[in-house]
Structures are given as C-alpha cells and as structure tokens.
Amino acid sequence: MKDSTRQRTGFILLAALSLITIIILSMIFTNSRRASVYLIPENYRGWVQIIYNQQSYPPIDISLTKATFRIGSDGVLRTSTPEVSEGIAEDQYYWIDAQGERTPIDTQKLIHGKSVRSSGTDGTEQDSETVAEEFFVGTEEAYKQTPAPSLEDHL
User: Fold this and answer.
1) Residue 143 and residue 99 share a domain
2) Has residue 123 got a pLDDT over 50?
3) Which ranges carry the DUF6843 domain (predicted)?
C-alpha cells in the first residue's frame, strides 16, 4: 500500500508541476512580441509619433525578430501598418546619422511617456481607425515642460 500511495503522490506532484510549467510558458509566449527598433534622426529631441493605418504610406519593416521604425526629421512616422503590437519585448532606441550609423539612446534618461492613443475621424478621442504610438526623446525636465502634440496635427 505504501508503494501505491507514493506512486500516486509522485504522479500528482508531476502533473501539478507540468501544469504550472505549461501555464508559465503560455504566459511568457502570449505576452511577448517582436522587439521594436526605433531609428530617430541624429540628436532629435522632442515628441515622436508613429501614426498607424495610414493607407498611402509604407508598412513598418518587420522581420521575424524585430520591427524597425524609421522616424522622420519632424519626429513623425506614418505607416499603413494597421495597429500597434502589444506585449513584452526589449525595445531599442537609436539616433541615426546621415551615413546610417547608429548611436544607442539611454532609455532610462532620455525616453519618457511612451503611450498609445487613438482618435476618431471627427477629432474625438475614442477607439477608432487612427492609432498613434508616442514617446518623448529628451530629458525628464524637458518632457514635463513639453505637451504632447495633438494627433490631429499629423493626419
């Protein structure tokens, strides 16, 4: 009887550990996304806006492991890509010069206020077709003193 009880206990323990492992792995993989690589014009400071679902613009450059965002000199990128990817990833931010050389941006000191918002066609904030991802490049003090641009300014 003792061997039978041990086997049953071992089986229950193994089943519980397997279930916990499956749950943890599914949480990891369902919350992950491709890393975003933001290429920002050299020494740019200010708000960056990525405006999605703009049909007359090219899609985001997406590979198996990353999505590359080439920000314009005005801090704006318009793309036909329909929506923002959600989930957890280690994003990278670079200043890029005229020769294509990348300089990493210290995200702890110089990237602030990353968010996603949407706007209706009548200019009201709501769930709609126009979605923008935005963040500020610069010091925290400058971020606090510089209001985010209106999404409608770039439509």
Assistant:
1) yes
2) no
3) 35-142
